[in-house]
Amino acid sequence: MDTSNSLFVNALQQKISLQEQEIAVLREQVKSQQSEIFAEKQKCEALLQNMLPDEVYRELLKNGKVVPQYYSNVTVMFIDFVGFTSMCEKIELQSLIRDLDTHFSCFDDICEKHYLEKIKTIGDAYMCAGGMPMLNHSHPFDAVLSAFDILQYLNDRAKQESDFPWTVRIGIHTGAVIAGVVGKKKFLYDIWGDTVNVASRMETGCDVGKINISGTTYDYVKDFFQCTYRGKMPVKHKDDIDMYFVDRFLPQYSEDEEGKIPNKNFKLALSKL
Q: What is the pLDDT of residue 267?
């Protein structure tokens, strides 16, 4: 009887031991799967964060939706490459898209440097805005500074790529917009309103290699930049809008003779806005 009980106990202990081993294996599998799920979740969140402004991303993560916001005063900038369609016929497509990506990536860096929010690209056009979603008072200047940097970057590149230089038109306007996230499966942060339409019109009415601003933006920056009045542009459903080329910094705010680099006086004035 003792021998029988001993065999039974041994068999039971072996079975328990096997079950514990199986449980341990399952726990490791679950732990591994949890780690994989967490890693994938982080990747998805990082991708979403890269698509949206930080404040909008956090709101979407917390509430599952983003409430549209009204901004009474922002500056919108459009940058459009000139002759892109004809370049498509002359340059190998993969090389063309690689160069376009390089340029847009540089625009991203310049906008980040000057506190502008990239909104989107539309084909070969680039759209960004300042003064939102983080509010500030320097956005008209931030847009002009970014435009100067973009033109300088492209001029430097043109010296190296004389066969097919990339040139742009730049349009800037200041006013009110509505901002929000649209779409259900592919989130897109976008802005709407007359300000966007006028900024686009400033770009289409611009000359190659120039910065064309509206009269509204001019009123903000005129004491710091030398500008050339260009007349009025008709805008659908609105009064005709004054246009100005931004030529350079005024001498008292310029570090260089060409008037493209701000000096300490300008930076000090900008910091007080």
A: 92
